[in-house]
Amino acid sequence: MEWTRGGTGDPLLALRRTGVGLLFWVITGLDFVVCVLQVFNDPIHGHMELHPLLVKIIDTPQFQRLRSIRQLGGTYFVYPGASHNRFEHSIGVAHLAGQLGQALKTKQPGLNITDRDILCVQIAGLCHDLGHGPFSHLYDGMFIPKARPGNKWKHETASLAMFDHLVKCNKLEDVMKQYGLNLSEDLDFIKEMIDRDNDKDQEWLHKGRPKDKSFLYEIVSNKTNGIDVDKFDYFARDCYHLGVQINFDYHRFLKFARVCEVDGWKHICVRDKEEDNMTEMFHTRLCLHRRAYQHKVTKIIETMITDAFLKADKHIKIEGTGKKTFRLSTAIDDMEAYTKLTDAVFEKILNCAFDAPQELRDARDILRRIINRDLYRFLGETRFEDPTEVCTNVFVGLYCITLSTIKMDYGMKREDPIDHLYFYTKHDTTRAFNRKRCQVSRIRPMCFSEQLVGFVCKKTDDRNPQADVDNFQQWCRAKDFPEGLINIIHVSVVQFDFRLFHNLELYVSDFKLNHFLIACCY
To answer: Which residue ranges does UniProt annotate as crossing the membrane (predicted)?
Structure first.
């Protein structure tokens, strides 16, 4: 039997390893709690031992909701294996957060990382995606901006609100205290890690932990260089379910991670020899976006789901706090209603009654087209020379054409994220440095982002209206649209009916017409 004691600053912990996990007592004064770490068997990380407080959070309606929200949204309609959901991803992130925290604590006792710190980091990892809506990023990235223009809502905002709702509804404050958390500090700490917006050039603004523990904020969501356990899990998990090869090995990062001080700030750094491995991580991100997340058919299907949601919005009724009714787009304002909003809304629309309102039936017809594989037609795409150029709200899709801008990069727009990563050498594990540009291999990429403009047609008739295409080109030139877009329309638009282009100025002046769509930036 193996016994250990808790670290300084923690409640007294007595641990004994058993055949089923870690049996331990948390002793606070005269009270104590006896429990066993629960083991979860995961296809990615194997057997994961989770703290009982994490299990308490998992066993709530707010967290169980994540079982019904697919990790990759519409990608499942393209890759049959991509059926995994936010539930297992969140548990995986909590597990990796604990592994990285424990590795740093073991290698560098001087950092004064406590068991309470690690538990808080794990809770943040577990709850960081509580705020995702139906079909994950489709809801906050495509639907909400169109349903509620000007609303700056993002899923991280909902994660914070849902976390507060979860703790309150399930009366977890006392349970957290039993396991040694200091709620006046730790609740702020957890929420700051879920949605961190502090810039290192500013003074330290966080309340949960002091500046000398700034590195803890890089474990779950790293705003410095994008290397965090959230990506470690979803890269490995998505590649596994998509059937895509992954060359990045997060185990090596966990093995070689250390904390070093840079300009008064403590950062998580990695051995210099791991540069290739970390470069492979960002290349994996790019490949996943290109091959799956922003696959042209994925984007078409997600556009169709978004169109259906917009038509069905006011007809979806969700009961919230005080029996108040919310719509598909307003459920984000009430966490009780939002808890009931999952991917199941797709089936609800698909199976609506034949005598339902016309808009709801129109939404149903769009979803049936997805099921029957009668998808919007992809016409073509082109690349911009300047990858930062944005065409959002500049070009207008007429009749049944919609334009979309797809951005793909290594995670930091036009910059190489490796430039923001700190390395150390085996000869000096305390001094951190950035890679110098002269040290970069000549076979490494020099461009780290690109932007595509794609054209999608909602109709599938078989006529070839070349004369109307020419009229459309003239209209584009009259509007001073870039020549590249005119060319792509000339080359790619085939078998499409442009009959309604004779009165273009009339249609353009009325954006409320259903024949028009403003270009969306994904």
So the answer is: 20-40
**Alpha carbon separation from 453 to 52, 98, 391, 522 (Å, rounded):** 49, 41, 8, 10
> For residue 162, what are its two tokens?
């849902």
Q: Quick one: 471 exposed, middle or buried, by C-beta within 10 A (0-12, 13-18, 19+)?
A: middle
Burial of 493 (0-12, 13-18, 19+ CB in 10 A): buried
**Torsion on CA atoms 156, 162, 167, 171, rounded to nearest 10:** 180
CB neighbour list of residue 44: distance below 8 Å, 6 or more residues apart: 92, 233, 236, 237, 240
Query: 88-147, pLDDT tens digit by residue?
Result: 999 999 999 999 999 999 999 999 999 999 999 999 999 999 999 999 999 999 999 999
| Alpha-carbon dihedral sign for residues 100, 103, 108, 109 | positive
Selecting among 84, 155, 267, 295, the annotated active-site residue is 155
Whole-number pLDDT of residue 264: 86
What are the phi and psi torsion angles at 456 (to 5°)? Answer: -130, 135
CA distances from 334 to 36, 165, 340, 450 (A): 35, 10, 10, 38
* Residue 307 near residue 520, CB atoms below 8 Å: no
Q: What is the pLDDT of residues 277-312, one digit of tens each?
A: 888 888 888 889 889 998 889 999 999 999 999 999
- The encoded tokens of residue 44 equal 């990615």
Q: Is 51 marked active-site?
A: no
Q: What's the pTM value of the predicted model, to 2 decimals?
A: 0.81
The dihedral built from the CA positions of residue 371, 372, 377 and 383, taken in this order, carries a sign that is positive
Contact predicate 121/216, CB 8 Å? yes
Nearest Cα to Cα of residue 280 among 252, 305, 303: 252
Q: Look up tokens 């060359």; give the residue.
A: 247
Of the two residues 310 and 501, the one the predictor is more confident about is 310
Query: Are 266 and 215 in contact, with CB atoms under 8 Å apart?
Result: yes
The DSSP-derived string for 361-425 is HHHHHHHHHHHTT-PPEEEEEEE-SSTT---TTTSEE-TTEEEEEEEEESSSTTS-GGGG--EEE
Evaluate if residue 521 carries a pLDDT over 80: no
CB 39 within 8 A of CB 48: yes
Q: DSSP letters of 109-122?
A: GGG---HHHHHHHH
pLDDT band with cut points at 50, 70 and 90 for residue 200: low
Inter-axis angle of helices 466-478 and 483-492, to 10 degrees? 170
Give me the residue label for tokens 């592994």: 99
